[in-house]
Structures are given as C-alpha cells and as structure tokens.
Amino acid sequence: MPLPPLPRLALRLVEAVASRDEPGFLSLQRRVLRVEMEDGSLSEPFVYDAVGRERLDAVVIVPHFRDAAGQVHVYLRSALRPPVEARPRAVWPVPERETLGAMWEVPAGLVEVDERSPEGLRRCAARELHEEAGFAVDPQAVGELGPSSFPAPGVMGERHFFFHVEVDPARQIEPPEDGSPLERGAKVVAVPLVEALELVRRGEIEDAKTELALRRLAEIG
C-alpha cells in the first residue's frame, strides 16, 4: 500500500539566535520558527535547538568477503563513544552494561568538504575503509548499499551514505587510523554475517547505522 502524500507544511524562520559558545567541532543552532500550514496560516513562534558542524554528512561502509564454504563475513571495528559512556545514571530506564560507551561498528567517517559529490563519497568510503580497517580499495569498486538516511533528524541534519565492498583478507594491513585518541587501541574483527545479525538481535551490537548496514547487506545476498 503506498503512503499518502506528506502534509504540505513548511518551516518559516523568525529569528536565528547566535550561540554564546566559542566555535567547536559541533555548534548549537538555535532558531525561532513558525510552521506554515497547508492553508497558509502560521503557528505560534517556537524555539528549536539543533546541532551542526562543518563536515555534516558521513559514509558507512561494510567490508565483506566469502570464505571457502561460501559464507559471507563482515569486518567490525570497536569504537569508544563519549556521549554514550557519559549517559547519566539518573536517566537510565534499565540497567546498562559495564562496557557502556564501547561499541562494535562497521567502518564509518565524515565526508570532507572536497568529497561532496557522488564520486567524492566513494573516495571517502575508500579512505575511511583504509584508515579504520586496513584495506586499500579502488573507489570505483565501492558499491552503494541502499539509499541515504537521517540517523537523528530531530537533532541534526546529518545524512548517512551507505556502501559495501568485497575485500581480500590476505591484503589487510594494520589500520593507519586518523590520529584521533579515540581510534587508538581499537580492534578489527571478521565475523560471519549471520552471527553479526544474531549479535544485533541480542543487543550486543547497539549501533543503529551498523544494524541497518548489516541488514541491507543480508538483503542483497
């Protein structure tokens, strides 16, 4: 059944409020908005906060290979996420695991300013794959893995662009990383795709973009 047409609503800017904070990796974008209804009427003004950054979008890439038996394996990388690790205990609806903040993810990274094109996205995916998983691939070998999506549309306008590529395990090198302390000491592991999906179902893989990418890879076989 097709979805009905989206309501013809629009946002109208009343005022952009300058942040009092010094510029950083992220910036607070506070705006006073109105919603314009389908009949042209305007809602009352309201304040809406969002987060922005210069390098707004990101690529998500799934490196994979088939073993001698034909089973698909994917590479995952450990990541330490400060916002998750810093979840205040007072907000916990359920107990959290002792490793809160440490996550398994597929390689991903931010799109540089000079990579804002279809060809640039593939270059970005190949670059991040090399930095985070230790595989050097031709950007033209990188394939799209479904449409892009918004991971947190209520907070940020970031788009995730999904890719996959077949790699040769024998050609893997030590990942050079990007120099960030958060990337040091990470582990890269190859896991059968069926097992990775089971880890998703058990909640051991908690990263949403990774779950989406793994499920898409499984769909294409």
Automatic annotation (TrEMBL):
It comes from the Bacteria. One of its GO terms (molecular function) is hydrolase activity. Its cofactor is Mg(2+). It catalyses: GDP-alpha-D-mannose + H2O = alpha-D-mannose 1-phosphate + GMP + 2 H(+). Pfam families: NUDIX. One of its GO terms (biological process) is nucleoside phosphate metabolic process. Keywords: Hydrolase. Residues 54-213 form the Nudix hydrolase domain. Belongs to the Nudix hydrolase family. NudK subfamily. PANTHER family: NUDIX HYDROLASE DOMAIN-CONTAINING PROTEIN (PTHR11839:SF18), UDP/ADP-SUGAR PYROPHOSPHATASE (PTHR11839). This is GDP-mannose pyrophosphatase.
